[in-house]
Amino acid sequence: MFNQVYDWMDERLQLKATVRNILEHPVPDHVNFLHCFGGITFTLIVVQALTGMFLALYYVPAPEQAFASVEYISREVAFGKAIRGMHRVGASLAVIMVVVHMVRVYFTGAYKKPREMNWLIGVTLLFVLLGFGFTGYLLPWDQKAYWATAVGTNMAGSVPVIGDFLLKVLRGGTELGSLTLTRFYAVHIWFLPAGLTGLLALHFYMVRKQGIAGPL
Ligand code: HEM
Fold first, then answer.
1. Under a CB-based contact definition with an 8 Å cutoff, are residues 149 and 187 in contact?
2. How do residues 70-101 score in pLDDT, each as one tens digit?
């Protein structure tokens, strides 16, 4: 049955050649467990996307309801506590794994010519991941979240020349309030995922095009 469906689709889309090309791509001999960390980071990102989609079913990005909605997820929603826990722990693990991945790339010299551009795409990916952490931290709208964001946005505000502008863009005004929460939420679920998807596509395209860097 599966084979028939596969053949039917292959006749129309020439899937088999593409799938074979992806799955049968030879892995160089020197590749070992140190090369797993990029893939582990990617797996964690997929888990973050899935758990985030479920959290978004109940979360309300408004100051009066945000904290209550998060409590509701943890206390009432079936598997809510587990999903929220996975999303919180996964966020930290993804940052840890991406740093380990970066350290591997650095110490094996895999950033050198011709992979400098992929290193730069990687640095942007790192900032995007940190952006997820910064915007996500505010969403529960509890005291810790509120004051962490107050400090974080004040730091942006102390940047010379453009500080005032940055602070207003981040907060949606001079005060930290409902506009800050909706904008952090929009950035967390739309802007950053869009950027991440594009950058990852480029990152993986370049890994495939250039191949994994050779042995030391
Ligand atoms: C969202 C975060 C990231 C994901 C999911 C990711 C994923 C991957 C994967 C799956 C590979 C293939 C080989 C491997 O895993 O080692 C790779 C290679 C590479 N990554 Fe990343 N990466 C990320 C962030 C970064 C960062 C932060 C840097 C550096 C600043 C970076 C630089 C590179 C380079 C230069 C390669 C080519 C390495 C080689 O040819 O051996 N990546 N990445």
1. no
2. 999 999 999 999 999 999 999 999 999 999 99
